[in-house]
Write a structure and sequence with these properties.
It is a single chain. It is built from one helix and seven strands, in the order βββββββα. It has about 110 residues and is mainly β. It has one domain: Thrombin, subunit H. A six-stranded antiparallel barrel has the order 2-3-4-7-6-5. The radius of gyration is 13 Å and the shape is globular.
Length: about 110
């Protein structure tokens, strides 16, 4: 299989808080992996592909946490009850934050 990703993605099981933009209630779960342009994680509900989501992620072994807006690119039902896996692309995130994430990924893979 040919890798189509532009940026390295690493496994990362860290806490993520997420909220659909049109909703007021947020929820927490764990990430599965992260890159400077997106993340893969679990959610408790089926979310619409193409919808926007607010996330807050704290990177493991650091004091760095960031917030971003992402667009849901895909969603799959998990084998676990009431659990879905989604992939988001960050669409509203600062360049400085992307650089911090890239630095974290370099540290974790060196």
């Amino acid at each position: 299989m040919i890798e189509r990703r532009k940026f390295k993605r690493i496994p990362s099981s860290t806490e993520i808080t997420y909220k659909q933009l049109e909703k007021t209630k947020s929820a927490k779960f764990l990430t599965k992996n992260i890159s400077k342009t997106g993340a893969r994680f679990y959610v408790h509900e089926s979310l619409a592909v193409g919808s926007f989501i607010w996330v807050k992620i704290k990177l493991l072994k650091t004091f760095f946490a960031f917030e971003a807006i992402g667009i849901i690119r895909w969603l799959e039902k998990s084998n676990a009850e009431n659990r879905y896996e989604i992939g988001i692309e960050f669409v509203d995130i600062s360049q400085e934050t992307q650089q911090q994430i890239a630095h974290y990924i370099r540290q974790e893979t060196s």
